[in-house]
């Protein structure tokens, strides 16, 4: 449940289209619904811009499905990260969409998009994390674009798309290996850059630590860095920044 939902509910009650009993029934699960194995925070979207999101990894399929259905019943939308096709099939919701590259399941995505978030991946192997970032930002209401496989080994591929960098309001840059691409992008544009290190790379990439350290030590000032493989977190941050210019 988000601010718009509560406003609509209160307006329906004020105009007599909704009874007191029905309004109380709809509001009774604020701030959360207890499913025993999970306490679903329906109120989170009302308190801020990011509603509760379901992290599927390490949960049983039945648990993920139960949480998703509880959220759908209250607000007709949910977002699941790190999911599998088995979970999507178990949901059996035609309203939901499955993104196999990133393991995202989205239902009730905002149809009116605002601003511009550009998601860039250094290599094809970084696309799963990049897609996670794009799906998250788009689900929340940001207009998104993508620019894939433009890493520093063939930097001319990026230079040919400099116009796209200038048109974006926020840029997410996803890179593994040595993690150099966010610094390059940050040096080419005055747009906010959100850097995402990935665990892509050979031995001394140390599961993404090398890329993380490179991004944290970038000489480009004002660049934000999220955790390794955290496309979802990058998408949320980029969306918040994007919305600041869309009010």
From TrEMBL:
GO biological process: 'de novo' IMP biosynthetic process
Molecular-function GO terms, alphabetical: hydrolase activity
Residue ranges constituting the PurE domain according to the UniProt record: 115-247
InterPro entries for this protein: P2CMN_synthase_LarB (IPR039476), PurE_dom (IPR000031)
Gene3D superfamilies: 3.40.50.1970
Domain of life: Bacteria
Protein name: Nickel pincer cofactor biosynthesis protein LarB
Organism encoding this protein: Candidatus Nitrobium versatile
């Amino acid at each position: 449940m988000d601010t718009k939902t509560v406003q609509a509910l209160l307006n329906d009650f004020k105009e007599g289209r909704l009874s007191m009993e029905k309004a109380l029934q709809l509001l009774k699960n604020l701030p959360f619904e207890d499913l025993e194995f999970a306490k679903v925070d329906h109120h989170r979207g009302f308190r801020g811009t990011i509603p509760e999101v379901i992290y599927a990894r390490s949960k049983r399929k039945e648990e993920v499905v139960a949480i998703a259905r509880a959220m759908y019943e209250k607000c007709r939308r949910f977002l699941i990260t790190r999911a599998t096709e088995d979970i999507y099939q178990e949901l059996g919701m035609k309203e939901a969409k499955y993104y196999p590259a990133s393991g995202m399941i989205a239902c009730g995505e905002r149809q009116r998009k605002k601003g511009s978030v550009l998601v860039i991946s250094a290599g094809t192997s970084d696309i799963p994390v990049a897609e996670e970032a794009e799906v998250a930002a788009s689900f929340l209401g940001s207009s998104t674009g993508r620019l894939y496989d433009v890493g520093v080994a063939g930097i001319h591929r990026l230079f040919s798309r400099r116009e796209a960098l200038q048109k974006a309001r926020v840029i997410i840059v996803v890179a593994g290996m040595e993690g150099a691409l966010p610094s390059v992008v940050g040096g080419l544009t005055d747009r906010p850059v959100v850097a995402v290190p990935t665990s892509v790379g050979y031995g001394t990439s140390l599961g993404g630590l090398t890329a993380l350290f490179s991004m944290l030590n970038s000489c480009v000032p004002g660049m934000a860095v999220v955790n390794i493989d955290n496309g979802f977190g990058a998408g949320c941050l980029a969306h918040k920044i994007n919305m600041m210019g869309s009010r």
